[in-house]
Amino acid sequence: xxxxxxxxxxxxxxxxxxxxxxxxxxxxxxxxxxxxxxxxxxxxxxxxxxxxxxxxxxxxxxxxxxxxxxxxxxxxxxxxxxxxxxxxxxxxxxxxxxxxxxxxxxxxxxxxxxxxxxxxxxxxxxxxxxxxxxxxxxxxxxxxxxxxxxxxxxxxxxxxxxxxxxxxxxxxxxxxxxxxxxxxxxxxxxxxxxxxxxxxxxxxxxxxxxxxxxxxxxxxxxxxxxxxxxxxxxxxxxxxxxxxxxxxxxxxxxxxxxxxxxxxxxxxxxxxxxxxxxxxxxxxxxxxxxxxxxxxxxxxxxxxxxxxxxxxxxxxxxxxxxxxxxxxxxxxxxxxxxxxxxxxxxxxxxxxxxxxxxxxxxxxxxxxxxxxxxxxxxxxxxxxxxxxxxxxxxxxxxxxxxxxxxxxxxxxxxxxxxxxxxxxxxxxxxxxxxxxxxxxxxxxxxxxx
Length: 449
Description:
Elements: E1 2-4, E2 28-30, H1 41-47, E3 56-60, E4 63-66, E5 69-71, E6 78-82, E7 88-92, E8 99-104, E9 109-112, E10 115-118, E11 129-134, E12 139-142, E13 145-147, E14 153-155, E15 161-165, E16 168-171, E17 173-178, E18 181-185, E19 188-191, E20 200-206, E21 216-219, E22 222-223, E23 231-235, E24 255-259, E25 262-263, E26 285-289, E27 309-310, H2 313-316, H3 322-326, H4 331-334, E28 350-358, E29 361-368, E30 376-382, E31 389-395, E32 403-409, E33 416-425, E34 428-431, E35 434-438
Parallel strand pairs: 2-3, 3-6, 4-7, 5-8, 6-9, 7-10, 8-11, 9-12, 10-13, 11-14, 12-15, 13-16, 14-17, 15-18, 16-19, 17-20, 18-21, 20-23, 21-24, 22-25, 24-26, 26-27
Antiparallel strand pairs: 1-35, 28-29, 29-32, 30-31, 30-33, 33-34, 33-35
């Protein structure tokens, strides 16, 4: 089964009513249709000035840019602005895994309104397939999507800092990990179901350095329910296991904290995991403050691991001060296009459309990037990938659900059916990628099935 990002059904759908004004001041425009200076994002990076001290703004028009991106160390103060997060997509994958789609080797880089994908996550649960890897200091992301399977986001090098505001991040294994400081405000952290139907996974894998007071910090984030196939713990301690040699590879003092989190039943009651029986839990800081269900009721934390913490308001207070976590760096002063936290909001989009075997029929499962209260979804189907006809529709309730599904008869072995979903939520209109379903090649509902 294969899928590729699709923009439009016959006539192109306008994904959002409001678009960035091209009259804004950009230093360079990238466009696949040739209307910009470059057709490649990497070409724009290569041509950007070196050792910049003020933002150099690169506007990227709608399109799927299939290229492995590397921002060299001397390309500082680059700002990447997508025309729209739902369909301005930076993607790479070789079908084997072990790749990094976007590598940031420069200080002071800002991504806005963009989707970063490692396409390996659409065909398999692993191996390691990073959508983004940061190796330097002061990376900022606003209204971005990060999509892959295993190891989606790797934040490298202790004491370097990365800030995320109103972003969507998904994966299935250790998909936010590393030894850097990562601060996440108002983000959706979506623990998606594993493609092979396995029932367990891990969200984070911090490997915080011993002399570093903060690791991964999540404030006011959402952890919505998936389709119910795979349940997750909030994290496990990378580089703190029986194979870690304290005299060669310094054992990590893993630090991950979730504050004011809304989480669903996809999170296991125990909350957290050790790596193995060699994990030193005495040096781990795994903590929560005010974890709530989506209906506002407190999460039952009575079965959380004994070596994890439930913080008091006094203990949690330092985590709400940016200067404690980020030090003397204020990303809001550096980047004029980074909105205030109080007004920042992510834009809606559809992700992870796939077909699962359901005993001769199939389930077409997908999720939105943000809660889809009152959204309407229409499923279109085609046998030739040219003419699409309405096949079904559904209406979301007034709730915080983001995982949805349609049912349809599976195509016969060797036959193909093509699907696309269009959706509206308030004034926003958005569509899915086109899904090519081949009979006999559906993902399982359970592992081994």
